[in-house]
Amino acid sequence: MKFLVIHDDAAESGGANTFRKDFSRVLESLGNEVFLFTYKADKYADPARCFIYRYNDRIKFIRHFSRHYFNPALFFFLRRLIKLVDPDVIHIHQNDTFTGTVLMACISSIPVVQTVHDHRIICPTGKGITPDGRLCAGKSGTACY
User: Fold this and answer.
1) 69-82 b/e (C-beta count within 10 Å ≥ 16 → b)
2) Euclidean distance between CA atoms 110 and 88, whole angstroms
C-alpha cells in the first residue's frame, strides 16, 4: 500500500513528530511505501519521498486569509501531489497551518485518517486552559488569546 503522510513541520522535535516518524517506519517495515508532505522537512527524510511546499506570504492580509481560509496555490500543489503519489490512504498528523485548504485538497475517493496529537484542532492555543490557568470550558473566542 501507499501512504501519503501530512505533517506541518517535519523538522520540529516533539511527540507528534516522533510518533509520525516511528509509525512511518513501522508501515515501511511491513512493505508499504510512505510519502511525506510538509512545509519544513526532516533532515533525515528521504528526498525522493518528501514533498515540501514552501510558502512566502509577505502581505499580512494575504497571509491571514491563506492560513485561516483558503490558499489556492497550496490547494493545487497538494491536489497534483495526491494525483502523482496516488496513495491508498492519506494520513494527516499535524495540520495547524492551512487547515481548511489541506482538508479540502484531500477530498476524494481516497480514505483520509487523522491522528489528533493535541488540542489544537479544537483549541486555538493548543493548551486547553484559560489565560488564568483554569481548565477551559470548551468555548473558543477572544478569551483564548
Assistant:
1) eebeebbebbeebb
2) 6
- Map residue 85 onto helix, strand or coil: helix
Q: Across the chain, what does the average pLDDT equal? A: 83
- Phi/psi at 58 (nearest 5 deg)? -85, -30
Cα 125 to Cα 53, 54, 57, 63, distances in angstroms: 24, 24, 22, 19
Burial degree of 89 (CB within 10 A; 0-12, 13-18, 19+): middle
Least confident window among 8-12, 19-23, 99-103: 8-12
In this predicted structure, the answer to whether residue 61 has a pLDDT above a threshold of 90 is no
The whole-angstrom separation of Cα 41 and Cα 21 is 12
